[in-house]
Amino acid sequence: MKKSSRKLLALCLSASLCAPLLFGCGTNEKKTISTEAVAETESSESVQKETGQAVEQTDVFVEPVDGISDDFIRGMDASAVRSVENSGAKYYGYDGTEQDVFKTLAESGVNYIRLRVWNDPYDENGNGYGGGNNDVAAAITLGKRATQYGMKVCIDFHYSDFWADPKRQHAPKAWEGMTADEKADALYDFTKESLTAILDAGVDVGMVQVGNEINNGMSDETETDSVMKLLTAGSKAVREISSDYGKDIQIVLHYTNIEDNDGIDTIASNLKEYKVDYDIFGLSYYPFWDGTNKNMQTVAKNIMENYGKKVMIAETSYCYTSEDGDGFGNSFDGIEDAVEGYAPTVQSQAAMIRDICAAANEVGVIGMFYWEGTWIPVGSAGADNSALWEKYGSGWASSYSADYDPDDAGLYYGGCSWDNQALFDFTGHPLASLNVFRYLKDGNSVPLAVDFIPEISVTCNVWDEVVLPEKAEIVYNDRSANTEVPVTWDETQLAAIDTEKAGSYKVDGTLEDGSKVTAAVEVEMINYVVNPGFEEEDTSMWSISYEGTANPTDYQVKEDDAYSGEVALHFWSGDSDMDFSVEQTLEDLEAGTYQLSVYAQGGDMSDDSDLELYAVVNGEEVQAVPFMVTTWTDWKLPTIKDLKIADGDMLTIGVRMKCNVGSWGTLDDFTLIRIGD
User: Which of 65, 84, 154, 369 is the most exposed place for a label (fewest CB within 10 A)?
Assistant: First the structure.
């Protein structure tokens, strides 16, 4: 998910989700982190946190999920609990007294616990790699506690000694040098031995993951045929154990990057072709990374309808605060990278979980697991907690992991980057959002309260008038109650904005009740070219014409040949001369003086090649600027200045080229800006 990189300004009060569309300067509202009401609650909580007492919190509003069953999986990954507790952190119940975290989860409606398992997450001296040091022994310890409180357990075999995901799928140290067939045998043995030990310990295993986020391979195997051998071996082991113990243990295969619909479909098709035996297709779905609920539904329906498999959300999460609990930093802070409609608040966290479950349930997904909702910080944000992370493995990675994973964990080891997405606060007290699991079926009504107001951001073109929104929409815990309220802006600050040059400003506003808001105003040169760098999939606004039978251009996805982003218009003459043009027509431009430019690079051009940037107004060419490319990445910037546009004019911009055989290059980032009246 791509988000704007513009730095956001904090608001004093909650702000609206959707401000009205305005003429003049464009309004783009971003999410703020809290409201005055939330800030007041957090202030009272901070006193309690300092004393170690229970945190008093207003309960969350939850709209009931229509038709959700009691069997819907309300799962929690709790793999780091043992390491967190060994590091000295404690968990509490809702009454403020210390309590087994698994009891609290069960009381909150969680019915399934997911536990990752690494083969041997220790170095030769017995030092743990971190991330919970999750070997089979850890799974037994945590699994027994989950079973004690009536929750089923999903065992998540990574078939690695440390983290396995699309970026890395390292084979266990003990499998180094093995062929794919030998790894398949070793995987089969490890699965049977581990699962036997876990079941014999009394853990109520209901499902087993054969691999973790295995889109790009598994245990250092990347060829489809080899990966399928590993999956088949793991599946066979689980089926045999299920039969031996008389249990119906479901087999899960787990994938991510679900925004790539075609890629997921190819994976499912390969599994079918190779006749891999499994029950559930697991999807990682983080809404701040992996697209929309609608797309998640599309992917899930495709798996269910075309491949006959059940689907579950194997991982998801959202933050309740933008604060950092242990000084290591957060993977997702919920401010600039927030999902529209959800702020980093406890209420928004609950709303996100509820909405994902509702969307999943609507299309027949069997449930979801919240990832590491119990991974709270050890120590405090202002302390050096590295000794705890190193000794007990309570950070995401320790320095001891460097020999096994030198390119990632070995470079960036440290604390927990997920503590602001936990469902417990930094001191181990359950958040009100944890109750969302038991509220899903019947909902939960609470007094109406403000949740947040997204920040108000206005982008204004140089020379234009700054127009701020007349109203802001207050976002409540019950979103159906959202309402717009008038805003009065500080006229002195507004008048001080210089629209003759680019710059950043802020303007204070007052709501009807006297509450304060702030608008961020960005005066900038707006580029009026649509899809100027060809990054968007829809290129219909560009018209390409050429002489001959073959189009010498294509939209090339290659970052090295693009001026910015990943895509550029690539041209190559092949085995004949090249004669083409690319252009776009723009209407309804404001009258004024404009400047047009484009970046170009390439080579092997003869001296008689003819390259021009041109502008056509109302069908008549008014300016053309010749240019020449020289060599790879020697970017040229032909520019047309003082382009006069009157009201009602139709402007066509473009580049034309007549080039010799063997010439090549790319065009990128057309820019049309208004520079004056």
Answer: 65
Beta bridge partners of 629: none
Categorize the per-residue pLDDT at 576 as very low, low, confident or very high, splitting at 50, 70 and 90: confident
Helix (H) or strand (E) holding 301: helix 293-307
235-257 as b/e, with b when 16 or more CB fall inside 10 Å? bbbbeebbeeeeeebbbbbbbbb
Q: Which of 643, 640, 645 is nearest to 655 (CA)?
A: 640
Give per-residue pLDDT as tens, 507-552.
Answer: 999 998 888 899 999 998 889 999 999 999 999 999 999 998 899 9
Rounded to 10 degrees, the C-alpha dihedral 353/354/360/366 comes to 90
Q: Are 472 and 433 in contact (CB under 8 A)?
A: no
Active site residue 176: no
Tens-digit pLDDT profile for residues 219-258: 999 999 999 999 999 999 999 999 999 999 999 999 999 9
- CA–CA gap between residue 237 and residue 193 (Å, rounded): 9
Phi, psi of 412 (to 5 degrees): -120, 20
Tokens found for residue 47? 């006193």
Of 564, 573, 555, 575, nearest to 598 by C-alpha is 564
213 as an active site residue: the answer is yes
Q: Which residue has the tokens 């500080």?
A: 490
Query: Which residue is catalytic, options 315, 390, 455, 535?
Result: 315
One-letter amino acid for residue 314 of the chain: A
Strand, helix or coil for residue 264: helix
Bin 264: left if φ > 0, else alpha if -120 < ψ < 50, else beta: alpha
DSSP class of residue 641? Answer: E
Position 128 scores a pLDDT of 98
Burial of 334 from C-beta contacts in 10 A (0-12 / 13-18 / 19+): buried
Half-sphere exposure of residue 669: CA atoms within 13 angstroms, side-chain side: 14
- Position of tokens 């310990």? 201
d(CA 268, CA 26): 43
Report how far residue 350's alpha carbon sits from residue 437's, in angstroms, rounded to the nearest whole number. 9
Q: Is the pTM of this model over 0.85?
A: no
Q: Are 406 and 397 in contact (CB under 8 A)?
A: no
Nearest C-alpha neighbor of 276 from the set 316, 315, 218: 218
Contacting residues for 654 by C-beta, under 8 A, at least 6 apart: 581, 582, 583, 584, 613, 614, 616
Specify whether the CB–CB gap between 147 and 202 falls below 8 A: yes
**SS3 for 502?**
coil
Residue 226 to residue 222: CA distance in whole angstroms:
7
C-beta separation of 288 from 339 below 8 A: yes
Answer yes or no: are the C-beta atoms of 440 and 74 closer than 8 Å: yes
CB 481 within 8 A of CB 37: no
Residue 396 to residue 386: CA distance in whole angstroms: 11
- Of 116, 148, 187, 169, the residue nearest 393 (C-alpha): 116
| Annotated catalytic residue, options 42, 213, 390, 535 | 213
Q: Which residues of 407-515 form beta strands (DSSP E)?
A: 450-452, 456-461, 471-476, 483-489, 503-511
Instruction: Answer whether 622's CB lies under 8 Å from 672's CB.
Output: no
